[in-house]
Specification:
single chain, binds S-adenosylmethionine, Rossmann fold, 9 helices, 42% helix, two-stranded antiparallel ribbon, 9 strands
């Protein structure tokens, strides 16, 4: 099972294994398949974190987003020890603490974080509802979450273009850029797993609804540069007791 709300344990393991296989080529391939936009999007989103914010990135992988954060106190949650190991070289260990965990069970105290970011990782959560509930729990009142992923617009010309890009162009470009050993070790092309998660991922309206149901306010989605990615945000409201 893999749908807009999550995926089975077997599928999730396959997704993480595919990411581990492409880890050495991850940043290079991402830049190639997004025509250089991936890092521009990450920098644009990282600018929402202030130096004094306590920041949490969920699904930090090889550190591709966290390296752009300027905050003094950053927690990076990543379920794969192998991917987290790649990030150790990139990230400033004085400001960034790597934590091995999943977004559905965040090992942090209630109301301990100012900003949460999920950058190209929310699509891989095995239980999207549980993940949003955990993010809400660890955020301080007034805190914000930003979920960034490859754009999945409702049916129309842009949706057709992106669909064609993800299903047909990405696997071909990746085949040129990824170390051929990755294609021998795994039973299938790791980028076909990316196609599966993109197909199963829902429209942003589904995740906006999940955020609103969980109690987030000011929920909205915007396109990032060139409309290849979206950012959905929500704010944990202040309450009379907070
Ligand atoms: C495509 S990578 C994104 C890495 C990085 N954030 C970036 O900007 O490229 C997705 C990451 O999410 C992680 N991930 C998968 N399932 C997760 C879950 N349930 N909770 C937290 N992270 C998860 C994967 O292991 C992987 O490192």
């Amino acid at each position: 099972m893999m749908d807009a709300n999550g995926m089975s344990g077997r599928h999730w393991t396959e997704v993480v294994e595919a990411l581990e296989e492409i880890a050495p080529d991850y940043d290079r391939v991402n830049q190639l398949i997004t025509f250089g936009l991936a890092d521009r999007w990450r920098r644009e989103v990282a600018a929402y974190a202030e130096p004094d914010d306590v920041v949490l990135e969920v699904g930090s992988g090889p550190g591709s987003f966290a390296r752009h954060l300027i905050s003094k106190s950053i927690y990076c949650i990543e379920p794969s020890g192998e991917l987290a190991n790649y990030s150790k070289e990139l990230l400033d260990q004085n400001r960034i603490q790597l934590v091995r965990a999943v977004g559905e069970k965040i090992p942090m105290a209630d109301q301990s974080v100012d900003k949460v970011f999920c950058v190209f990782s929310f699509r891989d959560f095995f239980d999207k509802g549980e993940g949003i509930s955990e993010i809400h729990r660890v955020l301080k009142a007034g805190g914000e979450v930003r979920i960034v992923d490859v754009a999945k617009p409702p049916p129309g010309p842009l949706a057709k273009l992106l669909d064609m890009h993800v299903k047909h162009i990405v696997p071909r470009l990746a085949r040129i850029a990824v170390n051929p050993a990755s294609y021998h070790r795994l039973k299938r092309d790791p980028y076909m797993t990316f196609v599966d998660t993109y197909k199963a991922f829902g429209f942003t309206s589904i995740y906006e609804n999940l955020l609103s149901q969980q109690g987030f306010s000011e929920v909205k989605t915007e396109f990032l540069k060139m409309k290849g990615a979206t950012m959905t945000r929500g704010k944990k409201p202040w309450t009379s007791t907070s």
